[in-house]
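Much of what follows relies on a compact textual record of a protein's fold. A complete example follows; check for yourself that the lines match position by position.
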Amino acid sequence: MAPSNATASLHVGFLTVLHEPSGYLGGYLVTNAWGRPLEFRLSTAVQPNRVQQILYGGTLEPYICADLIGKTLVEKAGVPVQLVVTDCPMALDLRLRLDAPVVWLAPPGETPAGFGSPARPGSPSAGAVFAHPRHPEDVPVVRGFLDRLDATLDLAEPFVRIREAIGEARKMGVTKSA
C-alpha cells in the first residue's frame, strides 16, 4: 500500500547541541515521517571567549544553541521541515527565528516549570514534548504533526543516531573549533 501524501510529505528536523570542552557542537538530522534520513548537517564547534561570556551572561547558551548553531543548520539544510524537535532546551529559542514549530523533547519524567501543557504527554520511557512558552498556538499544530508520524517512530531515537554520527565525524576530524 502506498503512503498517503500527507504522511509522505511530512519532514521533521531533529536538532541537538552538545556542550563539550571544545565548545558547543550541533547536529541536525532531517527525516521523513517514518524516521528515514533525508539530510544530515553538523556544525563546527563554537567556543565563546571570556568577554562573550561576561557580555551575554545568562543569554549566552540560548544564543549559541538557537541563533548561532540551530538557525544556521536549519537554514543551510536543503530539505524544508514542518517541525523541529530538539533535546536541548537552550535550542528551543530557535522557534523565535523560524516559522515552523520547534519543540523540546524533555527527558522522561521531567516536567519543566514555565511551560504550558505538553504537545504530547510523557510516559515512563518517553519524555513529554513541549512547545515554546511564547508560542502556545503551536501545541495543536504539533499534536497534528505528531499524529501523522509513524507510530513506531521513537522521537528520542534520532538523537542517538545524531550523536553516533558526531562521534564518527570526530574520528574523521570534521568537528574543528570555530
